[in-house]
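User: Quick sanity check before I run a bigger batch. Here is a single chain. Can you write out its predicted 3D structure?
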Amino acid sequence: MEVLIVVLTLIALSNAQAKFSNVNASSVFYVKEDEPVGFVIVQLEYTNPDNKSLTLKLENNGGGPFVISSNNLQLSGLLDYEASKTYKLSISLKDDASIKDLVTLNVNVLNFVDITVYNGNATLNEESPVGTIVPFNYTLENMTNRTAVYTLV
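Assistant: Done. Predicted structure follows.
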């Protein structure tokens, strides 16, 4: 009896490409302008069907204070709503050879209303006539469609 040994070598050929799974061109993220440096805007997730080593890179930061660290898009500086209300960022996903996916997304800055509260004393003669103006000093920024509340004690 003869035994025939056949050795088969299987090579997996995959057409599947690594790509972002939780961000795309229509992704918009809203960040308050008073968020601290290091604030995580989004944790970037991606598929990796070939299990290759992949790298995330911020190709264009839109002129803003953004960085990628440990798969997180985060703030590398402070935002200023008055300076820029929106940023368009480009992020690539690449292996050793080439870019596998590139996404452009928007970060919109939400205004933090800066209010300086006045907690001072005003002196007024108790016999002042009705209609006398009481000195009151306050600063309100961007109060469109908002109500300022104050109390006289």
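The chain has a mean pLDDT of 83.

User: Great, the batch can go ahead then.
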